[in-house]
Design brief:
Length: 259
C-alpha cells in the first residue's frame, strides 16, 4: 500500500458523489466494509479512481495486493467479523484534502478488474510485454492484446498505448474481413496503419506473411501468420481464450456437419 488516502463506494449509495474519503489504514478499510456489509457491492480505490478492493455482502472477492490483505487487513477484519474485537470508527477526511494529495501509481495490479493477470501487469511494468514503435515522429510503447472476432472466431489483435503510464486504445493491428482463415492468421489493417506496419510486425518477431491477400473495397489486405509462442509471451491469457473460443466454434461446426 503506497497511498495516503483511499475512497470508498458501495451500491447502497445513490451516486459516486457520495464516496467517502479516509486515510489508507486497515482500521478504516475495515470500518468502511462493516458499514456496507449488506451492500451488493462495495469498492475501495485510490483517490484518482484506481481499484484496490471489491467486496460483495461484506465478503472480499478481489484484492490484488495479497501481502497487504493477508498481513494487515484480514488480521483486523476477520476478528471484527467474528465479533472478537469492536468495529473501528471510520475516520473520514474532507474530499478536498484527499484530492489535494498526489497519488503515486499503485504498487498492486489495479488492472485486475480489466482482465490483466498479475504476470502480464508485471511484464508491462518491466517493459517485457511492451513493443516500441516510432509513429508520426513519436516513440510509443505498445501492448499487444490477443482477442477473437465474435463472428468466426478469427484471431483479433489490438494495440494499446502505455506511453502515458496507463492503458489507452491505440488501434487495431488486424481487420475482420468476414472470412474463415487458418489458426494464428490475420489480415493486417494496412488501410489505417499503412504498409509500414508490416516491417514492424516482422522486426518484433510477431509473424510473417503467408503470401495471401484479400481485397475489400479499394484496399488489399495482406495475411500474416503469427507465431503462437510469441503471442503467448505477450498475452498468455488472451491467447488461451482465443484458442478456447476457436476450439468451441470448430466443435460447434462439426456437430452441424454430423447432423
Amino acid at each position: 500500500m503506497n497511498q495516503k488516502y483511499l475512497q470508498g463506494l458501495s451500491s447502497n449509495m445513490e451516486s459516486p458523489n457520495e464516496a467517502v474519503f479516509f486515510e489508507a489504514t486497515p482500521e478504516n478499510i475495515t470500518a468502511f466494509l462493516m458499514q456496507h456489509q449488506w451492500a451488493q457491492m462495495s469498492a475501495i480505490g485510490t483517490v484518482d479512481d484506481r481499484s484496490f478492493l471489491t467486496a460483495r455482502m461484506g465478503l472480499i472477492d478481489t484484492c490484488p495486493d495479497q501481502a497487504y490483505l493477508l498481513q494487515k487487513l484480514l488480521p483486523i477484519y476477520a476478528k471484527v467479523q467474528m465479533g472478537d474485537i469492536p468495529v473501528p470508527k471510520l475516520k473520514t477526511v474532507p474530499k478536498e484534502i484527499a484530492l489535494a494529495e498526489k497519488c503515486p501509481k499503485p504498487d498492486w495490479n489495479y488492472l485486475r478488474w480489466e482482465g490483466y493477470s498479475d504476470k502480464k501487469y508485471q511484464d508491462i511494468l518491466s517493459g517485457k510485454a511492451l513493443l516500441e514503435m516510432s509513429w508520426m515522429g513519436e516513440k510509443t510503447s505498445l501492448e499487444l492484446q490477443v482477442r477473437s472476432y465474435y463472428s468466426g472466431g478469427n484471431l483479433a489483435l489490438l494495440l494499446v498505448d502505455w506511453s502515458q503510464g496507463d492503458p489507452q486504445p491505440w488501434g487495431d493491428l488486424s481487420v475482420n474481413l468476414g472470412k474463415s482463415i487458418a489458426k494464428d492468421c490475420a489480415f493486417i489493417d494496412v488501410n489505417n496503419l499503412s504498409n509500414d506496419i508490416l516491417s514492424w510486425i516482422e522486426k518484433n518477431g510477431l509473424g510473417s506473411p503467408t503470401g495471401r491477400n484479400e481485397q475489400s473495397g479499394f484496399v488489399v489486405y495482406p495475411e500474416y501468420r503469427f507465431h503462437p509462442e510469441r503471442l503467448k509471451e505477450l498475452d498468455d491469457k488472451g491467447y488461451a481464450e482465443y484458442e478456447n473460443l476457436l476450439k468451441q466454434q470448430q466443435q460447434h461446426m462439426k456437430k452441424g456437419w454430423d447432423r
